[in-house]
Structure formats: C-alpha cells, structure tokens
Amino acid sequence: MTDSQARSQIATGKTTGLTFVLILSALMAFTSLSTDIYLPAMPLMAKDLQGDVELTITGFLIGFCIAQLIWGPVSDHFGRRLPLFIGMVLFVIGSAGCALSTDIGQIVFWRVFQALGACTGPMLARAMIRDLFSRTRAAQMLSTLMIIMAIAPIAGPLLGGQMIKVTSWHSIFWLLAVIGTLMLISLFWLPETLPEEKRVKASLRSAFRNYYTLLSNTQYMRFTLCLTFYYVAAYAFITGSPFVYITYFGVEPQHYGWLFAVNIVGLMAVSMVNRRLVHRYPLETLLRFAVCIAMLAALMLALATGAGIGGIGLIAAAVFVFFAMNGVIAATSTAAALDAVPNVAGSASALMGSLQYGSGIISSLLLALLSDGTPWTMGWIIAVFTVASAVMALTTRGTKTAG
C-alpha cells in the first residue's frame, strides 16, 4: 500500500481507521499518563527521596517543552513516523531510569530524559490529524481522540493508588516502561501521513526559522496562548491536587484517583457533545463560550479556597466544571491554530505543545514557591490564568464558520 492510499483509507474511515484512531489516542495520552499515574504516590516519594517531588513534574515539563521544538521541524523534514520511533525508545529508557532512581536529583534527570521521548506522542498526533483533515473535521477528530485518551488520566491515578498499596512507587515507572514498549511495537501499524512531496525541503536550520514566522502570526498565537494559559491553570490543579486532597483534606491515596477521575468523565462528556457542535457553530464561538464557563468556575474556586468555605465538595465541583471545558477548549483552539498555518503543521504543533505543556512549569514553580499550606494558592493560580485564557479567546477573529 502506498502512502497516498493509506492516507485515503484513514481519511475515509476505512480499514486502518480504527487502528489509526486508537494509536493516536494512546499517543495523545502519553503526557497525562506519564504524570497522572504517580500522583497518588507523590507524598510517599517525597518522604522516600527526601526532596521536593514537585520537581519531577517540573523536570518532565522542561524536557517536554524543549524537545518538541526540535522534533517539530524534524518531523516536517523527515516525516512523522521516524521521530515517533525514536521518541518511544527514549521514553522506555527514561522510564527505566526513573524506576532505578534513589534520590531526587536522579529521578528529576530521568524525568527530563523520559520527556524527550514522550513529547513526540501528542505533538505528532496533532500534526498527523492536520495532515489528513480540514479545520472542522480536525476539531471533530481531536474531540474523538480526547474521549478515548481520557481513559489514561482516569485509570492512571486509580492504578497508581492501588499499586502503592501492594508495592513500591518504583513499580509505577517499570509499568510505564512496559507501556512504552507496547507503544513502540504499535507504531509498525501506523502509516506515514506526510508524503514526500509535502515535506519541507529546506535544511533543518532553515526549518527552525519557521518558529519566528509562527511567533509573529497573531491569529495562530492568540489561539495558542489561549490554550497555554488554560493549561497553566490545569497543571496548577494536577500538581497541587495531591497536597490539597491527600495532605490537607486527609483523603486516602487510593481514593484520590476517584476525585481526579470524575473530572475526566466531565471532559469526555463535553468532548462527545463537541463532536456535534463543531459542525453547527464556528470554532471561535465554541472556544469563547467554553473558556468563559471555565473562567466562572475558576473564580468560584478562588473564592471558595480564599474564604475557606464549601470544603472539599465545592472545590471538587468547581474543578469539575473547569476541567470539563477542556473537551472544547483543547480541540477547537488546536484545530483553529493549526488551520492558520497549514504548511508547517509539525513545527506549529511543536510550538503549541511546547507552550501548552511547558506552561506547567509555571504552575509547579508557583506552587512550590508561594504555597501557604492551604488550597488558596492552587485556587488563585487557576483563576488568574483562566482569566488570561479568556482574554485571548475573546480577542480572536471569527473568520471561519463551521462546515
């Protein structure tokens, strides 16, 4: 089968369609799985490694952020499959290194190494969708992927919480190594979506100059910053919730996963609705609506944590609404941003992903430096950056309609 035939079959949902969607969903889930699965073990890891375990998230996001900027032009030049194969190998090695770590410095180093490979998954999954589908169809496909990939952040904390009851936290990273190996094998069923004639022919050095063009593209950057600011807020919850739920409110680590998972159920439900909405409304309209709903939930969360009212119930309810909106925000902002720069989808996806996931560095550092021992720090960080996300969404131009 030729590349063009494979692309045609995928685009029309035949033969390789289901396999393609499942593999891309798994690739999209790599980031959340790599972090969410060990969230319940973070208090135990902090005691065992005698260090600030939040730095393992910071280190992962630093590696994730930087590496994407390299893999993007590489994928535009050589195609999507080769970087994915190399990335999965790096991920497996990094996961094994984390499992063998004995102090905080070692595990932070291997988390950075692990991220060098993990970042190829979601970045190139987005690029492959843009290779194949138009703007509205791409948003629908991204919503579909999010429904399936949401299994990872649901299963991850639940599995991690149960594992530390019967074994050590090291086993969690050995499991990630096994998952990475299975993903490496699955890539043999993934066809190349960027044919030779569409690849960037200029040298890689010239390809890296695309980042300047992207940074100066106002429409692309507004959508990208909208998603970036939203993810600063999302990572504030991901990083801060183990302390808030387990340490502050006394939730058992094995039950923490349920509180985390309920947010992903909301995301999945909204993603299913969004698959239909993208054919009826412009992406910009859906994005603005979703971000404004998330902003209201974030402001409620800040009020509750600042005033110390409502307890864990109000916090969980506000976070549920905030997280559910990701089912619209991620799909619409990504599709609209990549549609603005279709000729460099790999680099555009890389820059977007670098800012999106690198934004978690801001969250984890703010939490580490400014925490006052209460949920308030997490609450105001989420509120401030969700408001910033809303500002970006409200200033985008609605130039394209659904169709």
Record keyword descriptors for this entry:
403 residues; mainly alpha; Growth Hormone, Chain: A; 20 helices; globular; disordered C terminus; cell membrane; sodium:proton antiporter activity; Bcr/CflA family efflux transporter; Efflux_drug-R_Bcr/CmlA
How would you sum up this structure, described in words?
- This protein is mostly helical.
- It has a single domain (9-192, 210-394), classed as Growth Hormone, Chain: A (Up-down Bundle).
- It has 20 helices and no strands.
- It has helices spanning 3-11, 17-28, 30-36, 42-49, 54-78, 81-99, 104-118, 120-132, 135-149, 151-166, 170-186, 204-208, 210-215, 218-248, 253-277, 283-307, 311-324, 326-340, 345-370, 376-394.
- Helix 8 packs antiparallel against helix 9 (135-149), helix 9 (135-149) packs antiparallel against helix 15 (253-277) and helix 14 (218-248) runs antiparallel to helix 20 (376-394).
- The longest helix has 31 residues, at 218-248.
- The chain is globular and about 55 Å long.
Q: Can I get a quick summary?
A:
The protein has 403 residues and is mostly helical. It has helices at 3-11, 17-28, 30-36, 42-49, 54-78, 81-99, 104-118, 120-132, 135-149, 151-166, 170-186, 204-208, 210-215, 218-248, 253-277, 283-307, 311-324, 326-340, 345-370, 376-394. It is globular.
